[in-house]
Write a structure and sequence with these properties.
about 160 residues; alpha+beta; 3 helices; seven-stranded mixed sheet
């Protein structure tokens, strides 16, 4: 009986290790910048393109870890309503936004602190959209503080003089 339990335990550990390895591989393909966030030089952040062609980065919104997809077509930092509720953000002025799926009701709020790589920004306006999904968008109201350069599969964000 002990040997059967030991064999089952070993197979469960092997299956768990395989699951963990594939989960880590998929995460790295989705956001290849998870580990490289600490590999920054001064006020420059270099990002690798993910397998789907987008640039993503790990960030902290009001001390909560999130993955942001860089979206130069988004006017502002944009998050899902469920994340806004987790962050206890106050509901501001309502508006209608144009999404890939058409018009959607939204509202404005404010993020007290946004951190990624060597950068920290405060009091950032954020658009909150219901059913946006689990991916937040880093839009132009944040990107305007950086010189953005894309070369091949690498994006460089460098602090510019118009940061507040």
């Amino acid at each position: 009986m002990k040997s059967t339990a030991s064999i089952v335990l070993i197979w469960l550990l092997v299956a768990g290790a395989i699951y963990w390895a594939f989960d880590a591989l998929i995460l790295r393909q989705h956001n290849p910048n998870v580990a490289s966030m600490s590999q920054t030089h001064g006020e420059i952040l270099k990002l690798k393109r993910s397998k789907d062609g987008h640039f993503r980065l790990s960030a902290m919104l009001n001390q909560q870890a999130v993955v942001l997809m860089i979206d130069t077509g988004a006017s502002s930092l944009t998050i899902d309503e469920s994340l806004a509720q987790q962050l206890s953000l106050e509901r501001g002025e309502a508006f209608v936004t144009q999404t890939a799926n058409g018009p959607s009701p939204a509202y404005w709020s404010n993020i007290e602190q946004l951190q990624f790589g060597p950068f920290e920004l405060e009091n950032i306006k954020v658009a909150v959209v219901p059913r946006l999904g689990d991916e937040a968008l880093l839009g132009m109201n944040v990107l305007k503080f950086f010189a953005v350069q894309i070369s091949g599969n690498e994006m460089t964000l460098q602090s510019s003089s118009n940061r507040h």
